[in-house]
Amino acid sequence: MPERYIKRSLEPVLRRAVREFPAVVLTGPRQSGKTTLLKRLFGRRYRYVSLEPLDVRMAATEDPRGFIEMYQPPIIFDEVQYAPDLLPYIKEKIDADRARYGQYLITGSHNLLLMEKVTESLAGRAAMLKLLPLTRREADGRPDKKLPWEIQKPTHDKKSLSTQRLWKEFLRGRYPELVVHPKRDWALWHSAYIQTYLERDVRTLRQVGDLTQFQNFLRTIAARSAQLLRLSDLSRDLGIAVNTAKAWLSVLEATYQVIVLRPYFANVGKRLVKTPKVYFTDVGTLCYLAGLKDPEHAAAGPMGGAIIETAAVSEIYKTLVHRGIDPRMYFWRTSAGMEVDIVVESAGMLVPMEIKLTSTPRPAMAKSIRAFREDLGERAAPGYVVHTGDIRLPLGGGVTALPFKDL
Q1: Which residues does residue 354 pair with via DSSP β-bridges, in sequence order?
Q2: Prior bond to 74 cis, omega within 30?
């Protein structure tokens, strides 16, 4: 029996890119579904070659020109970060037949060295797309569902979602394998994933020498998820240099493990905090690294607020990325402590959102959004207080209480 396939929001964007560019580069974290997606859409017409096996990698590295001649397009080269020296020779082949679109489909699990090579070799010749773990709308079979502020006449999703089920979803995360196989032990899967990530992705990067210390850094980042990330404090706690912490954060960002949210600045005459906030791309990764094992502990424990905020940031970010859009997401915080958790730039407007660990939203929870809208004036769109309950209602001042399941 074939494994269930989950339709991805990126599919129409990917099909269009293949029709309009000689090459398409699809990056994203390990196990996000890149290979499955490309094989599903193009497997009948394209030959598939993985560059991860050692013998294939050696052949591609030792004789890249001969390797490219052996594997003529249309072809899928999977995990090209293992043989980045192929890219200049792919460029040669493309330039010999520039009008032929969809020649090469290339994947990579990180974009640190890969993107540098792509920029050098395939600038103007390749569409750059990202595939991240599943959004909730993809997992629920509604990949085209709009975001709340894109809907002219808001409708309430009547599908009930118990608090227990919501937090179980957070603990599991949304890597495709865990969604397709709901009975799989999620903790065991995440343990193996982190080990594979460390051994195969991180070990190859020159910025990381001590894997054990890097794993401690990873867990420390998890403990500070959704908080202001002061690298000087983190470095002191771990006993590493600030520059090392900066380099390692760049590694996490380049391998799509974290989303770095930076503050939104505007001329509002107030001092604004410049420190960034960091969220894990997959909320299940966060829960695993934080040592959470049951829904009740996750919901009631000290990480509860960070988990629901991570889930909201991740859902919006992945939804936009899977449309082929570079998300413009920020947070807003004044030196006086007034804060809006998420600010999304959409159609020239700024959509403010507060994320609350409550099933009972109240008007007082919209105070910071009202302050943001007052300061930003006409640029500020109506805002939302996202919560864990089922009720949708106005909170005054252009703010709506929105259930997380409707996000």
Answers
A1: 385
A2: yes
pLDDT at 227 over 60: yes
Strand-pairing partners, residue 105, are 24, 76
**What is the C-alpha separation between 272 and 263, in angstroms, rounded?**
8
* pTM of the predicted model as reported, rounded to 2 decimal places: 0.93
Report the chain's mean pLDDT, rounded to a whole number.
90
Task: Write the burial class of residue 378 (CB in 10 Å: 0-12 exposed, 13-18 middle, 19+ buried).
Answer: exposed
Q: How far apart are CA 291 and CA 223, in angstroms?
A: 10
**Mapping DSSP to helix (H, G, I), strand (E, B) and coil, where does residue 239 land?**
coil
Structure tokens given for 305: 């607020």
Instruction: State the amino acid at position 325 in one-letter form.
Output: I
CB of 77 closer than 8 Å to CB of 105: yes
Mean pLDDT across the stretch 338-351? 94
For 69-94, write each residue's pLDDT tens digit: 999 999 999 999 888 889 999 999 99
Q: Which CATH number fits domain 11-130: 3.30.1140.32, 3.30.1490.20, 3.40.50.300, 3.40.190.10?
A: 3.40.50.300
Strands (E), 79-123: 104-108
Cα(335)–Cα(299) distance, integer angstroms = 29
The crossing angle, in degrees rounded to 10, of helices 11-20 and 34-42 is 60
Query: Hey, where are the domains in the chain?
Result: 11-130, 136-406
d(CA 121, CA 223): 39
List beta partners, residue 295. none
Phi, psi of 371 (to 5 degrees): -65, -40
Other C-beta atoms lying within 10 Å of the C-beta of residue 314: 25
User: Which tokens hold the place of 263?
Assistant: 């503050």
